[in-house]
Design brief:
By secondary structure, the protein is mainly alpha-helical. It has twelve helices and no strands. Helix 2 packs parallel to helix 4 and helix 10 runs antiparallel to helix 11. The N terminus is likely disordered.
Length: about 200
């Protein structure tokens, strides 16, 4: 149906709702790779153009919740991360954070791929608009709170210094405050040995 009606049809959000319901309520139903490719292609177009974003992100969360491991899902996540930073709509940024965090938590990610995603976030702590910087700080806080403590300890040095830079030098008070909160969360999660390394 999606192929026939096209991306601009009013039927598209109905299709997305229906597919989301099938994927949530029928765990035994498996989409074929060709179907996933079409589904993700339409979802990607809607994510970037901000049409029906609530429905689109709900569908993406369902796809990721099912852990449908296909290249198209991996290819879409950098776009979601970019939108989380660049979009001026707070609601859309929040939706992006939910989807991206779910992906980082539950998808099989080789260490280099995970490191690439994390370094992308850390690099965008320097983003020119404070809303984007704030979204990154909040995302780092979610990662620190949700990831296993041993993984956070292993990356504590990676997180710590960029967050301290935001705490000390960010021109916006809300970014400095959020950075301080995330540093406190990091301190609470890591073990004593890691704390000693961070503060010596």
């Amino acid at each position: 149906v999606l192929r026939r009606v096209g991306a601009s049809s009013e039927l598209q959000p109905v299709c997305f709702r229906t597919l989301g319901a099938i994927l949530r309520e029928c765990p035994y139903h498996e989409l074929r790779p060709a179907q996933i490719k079409v589904l993700i292609a339409f979802a990607a177009a809607d994510v970037l153009q901000l049409r029906h974003q609530q429905i689109t992100f709900t569908l993406l969360k369902t796809v990721i919740g099912r852990r449908i491991v296909e290249p198209q899902v991996y290819d879409l996540m950098p776009r979601v991360a970019e939108l989380m930073i660049h979009c001026q709509d707070q609601h859309v940024r929040h939706l992006c954070q939910q989807v991206f965090l779910q992906f980082l938590q539950y998808y099989p990610l080789a260490v280099p791929r995970l490191e690439k995603h994390l370094r992308f976030l850390l690099a965008n702590l320097e983003y020119e608009h404070s809303e984007g910087r704030g979204a990154v700080i909040d995302m780092l806080g979610m990662i620190i709170r949700r990831f296993p403590a041993q993984e956070v300890c292993a990356r504590a040095q990676l997180f710590f210094l960029p967050l301290v830079v935001r705490l000390v030098s960010d021109e916006e008070a809300h970014c400095r405050e959020r950075a301080g909160t995330v540093i406190a969360q990091l301190y609470a999660v890591v073990d004593q040995h890691t704390r000693d390394q961070l503060f010596t």
